[in-house]
């Protein structure tokens, strides 16, 4: 009853109550899981705020994981905005205040030299997915230090709900080297190290020790980097990707879901990928990650790398990314174009005439009415992706995109927006949610035992996701499948990813001819099973 993996609460059967000595410890009526769902939702749906609902779900996860995953799987459209963006951002900001029970592992600077011993404290040994953050860039909210643990917890809940990876095979990790968020340092309820963030050799040594120890302690685990600051995210990805089974979801997962949205949008406009011109607002992890995968996709359509890069233009805080600038960091330089320097977005749109605006700026309101109208004027039916999270950081809302473009925009966002009516037509905004990508990628890696995670997996995942969008979806302006289909989406992506692993010589397990059935059998279904 104290183990959330085994606990059934009021649903222990008569036989289980006898065999396990539970008589008298639970009320006498044996409830079905449906009755438990009814009781939970009856309270949950009466809560006044999303944060209260988040706490209810977290408390349920603490005591009964089967019921928790049964509910979020069955009501995924309702629950995903609560267990992940946008509510998880608020939960991270108030993590110390709402803390109930520890999830995952905290590896702090004080543990340098002892990380392997620390990881051996984890009671489960068959770990298949680790999500790790250092809390420096949580969504668009900045440095939240150890409070960022809410992100790995939420991501791994989605690995289970969306792709059926068993919760006992998931490990959330927070690396704590302090925070530069003074409000947290001044807060007595802040649970992390009360020190300014350590950087340099000590920080790198701790991360390296963690990667080495995690790979040795959990040799079958995929390690996902999450919400590291730009300057660390790219260098860690480059450092480990060719020797460790790892990827960065902010870079590669975002890229795949955005590319899938582009493929779907082109089914509405009738254009070809190689004929598009993409203007990115924001040249950080997400933006340049999308750009790099876009280059890969364009090369797959026959363009040279140089031609592909000429289709991708970037605006950062100082204006258009061009070759004459001397302030460009490593990830921006490959996208620096030969062009006169420009700072005014309207002038840039008029000069470049983009067909798609990709927002990854983390700045609310970046897509102004004038920008949307200019994009509509030059493109006719502009693709407008406001991908920054949470909702408060979105470059524009769905209503703004549709209203300012007079219904012409093909819109997607990082956080969800409700369907809306404009001039007699209903639009269902697409949510470019990474949950369409990373759970299926993880499942495919587990199924194939892939040693590494090449970019080809994300290109294949994007193509697979786009193929699952129906004509009915497109007629509503929806460029992603319904979240109700997320487990089917994850299964399809897992099969594709596993095949890429085999074709690349990275698989350590051979899949049978009917790979779909074999992978489906690996997926955890959150229903009660007999304990006796």
Give the secondary structure arrangement, pairings included.
Blueprint (H helix, E strand, L loop, with lengths): L13 H6 L13 H12 L5 H14 L1 H10 L1 H8 L3 H7 L1 H4 L6 E4 L6 H5 L9 E5 L16 H14 L6 E7 L5 H4 L14 H18 L4 E4 L4 H11 L5 E3 H21 L8 E4 L3 H16 L4 H5 L2 E5 L2 E2 L24 H8 L3 E4 L9 H11 L3 E4 L11 H7 L5 E4 L6 E3 L2 E3 L2 E2 L6 H11 L6 H13 L3 H5 L10 H18 L11 H6 L12
Parallel strand pairs: 1-3, 2-3, 2-4, 4-5, 6-7, 6-9, 9-10, 10-11, 11-14
Antiparallel strand pairs: 7-8, 12-13
Could you please describe the fold and organization of this structure?
Helix content is 44%, strand content 10%. The chain has 532 residues and is α/β, with parallel strands linked by helices. It folds into 2 domains: 32-228, Malic enzyme, N-terminal domain (Rossmann fold, 3-Layer(aba) Sandwich); 252-435, Rossmann fold. The strands form 3 sheets. A 7-stranded mixed beta sheet has the order 8-7-6-9-10-11-14, sandwiched between helices. Strand 9, helix 17 and strand 10 (383-386) form a beta-alpha-beta unit.
* Rounded mean pLDDT score: 96
Q: What is the number of domains? A: 2
Neighbour order of strands in the largest sheet:
8-7-6-9-10-11-14
Low-pLDDT residue intervals, each spanning 5 or more residues: none
Structural class: alpha/beta
Text of the CATH class of the largest domain: Alpha Beta
Helix content: 40-55%
Characteristic terms for this protein:
44% helix, Rossmann fold, 7-stranded mixed sheet, alpha/beta, 23 helices, 532 residues
């Amino acid at each position: 009853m104290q183990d959330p993996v085994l606990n059934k609460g009021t649903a222990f059967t008569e036989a289980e109550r006898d065999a396990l000595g539970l008589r008298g410890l639970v009320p006498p009526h044996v409830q079905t899981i449906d009755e438990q769902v009814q009781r939970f939702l009856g309270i949950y749906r009466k809560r006044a705020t999303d944060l209260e609902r988040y706490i209810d779900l977290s408390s349920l996860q603490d005591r009964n994981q089967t019921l928790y995953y049964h509910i979020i799987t069955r009501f995924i459209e309702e629950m995903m905005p609560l267990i992940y963006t946008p509510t998880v951002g608020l939960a991270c900001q108030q993590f110390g205040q709402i803390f109930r029970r520890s999830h995952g592992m905290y590896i702090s600077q004080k543990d340098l030299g002892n990380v392997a011993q620390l990881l051996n404290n984890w009671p489960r040994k068959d770990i298949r997915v680790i999500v790790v953050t250092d809390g420096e860039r949580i969504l668009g909210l900045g440095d939240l230090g150890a409070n960022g643990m809410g992100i790995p917890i939420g991501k791994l809940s989605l690995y289970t709900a969306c792709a059926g990876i068993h919760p006992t095979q998931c490990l959330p990790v927070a690396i704590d080297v302090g925070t530069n968020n003074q409000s947290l340092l001044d807060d007595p309820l802040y649970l992390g190290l009360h020190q300014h963030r350590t950087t340099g050799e000590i920080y790198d040594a701790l991360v390296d020790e963690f990667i080495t120890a995690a790979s040795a302690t959990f040799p079958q685990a995929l390690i996902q980097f999450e919400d590291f600051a730009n300057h660390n995210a790219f260098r860690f990805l480059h450092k480990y990707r060719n020797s460790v089974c790892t990827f960065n979801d902010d870079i590669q997962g975002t890229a795949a879901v955005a590319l899938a949205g582009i493929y779907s949008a082109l089914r509405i406009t009738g254009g070809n990928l190689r004929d598009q011109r993409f203007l990115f607002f924001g040249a950080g992890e997400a933006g340049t990650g999308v750009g790099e995968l876009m280059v890969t996709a364009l090369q797959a359509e026959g363009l040279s790398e140089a031609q592909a890069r000429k289709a991708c233009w970037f605006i950062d805080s100082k204006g258009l990314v061009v070759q004459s600038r001397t302030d460009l960091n490593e990830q921006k330089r490959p996208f620096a174009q030969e062009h006169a320097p420009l700072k005014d977005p309207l002038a840039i749109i008029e000069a470049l005439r983009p067909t798609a605006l990709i927002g990854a700026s983390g700045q609310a309101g970046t897509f102004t009415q004038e920008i949307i109208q200019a994009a509509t004027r030059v493109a006719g039916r502009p693709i407008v992706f406001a991908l920054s999270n949470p909702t408060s950081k979105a470059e524009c809302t769905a209503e703004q995109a549709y209203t300012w473009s007079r219904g012409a925009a093909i819109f997607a966002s990082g956080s969800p927006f409700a369907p809306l009516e404009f001039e007699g037509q209903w639009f269902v905004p697409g949510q470019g949610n990474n949950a369409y990508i990373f759970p299926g990628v993880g499942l495919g890696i587990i199924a194939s035992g892939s040693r590494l995670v090449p970019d080809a997996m994300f290109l294949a995942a994007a193509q697979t996701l786009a193929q699952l969008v129906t004509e009915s979806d497109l007629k509503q302006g929806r460029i992603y499948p319904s979240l109700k289909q997320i487990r089917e989406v994850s299964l399809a992506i897992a099969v594709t990813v596993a095949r890429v692993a085999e074709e690349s010589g990275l698989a350590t397990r051979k899949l049978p001819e009917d790979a779909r059935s074999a992978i489906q059998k690996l997926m955890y279904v959150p229903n009660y099973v007999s304990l006796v």
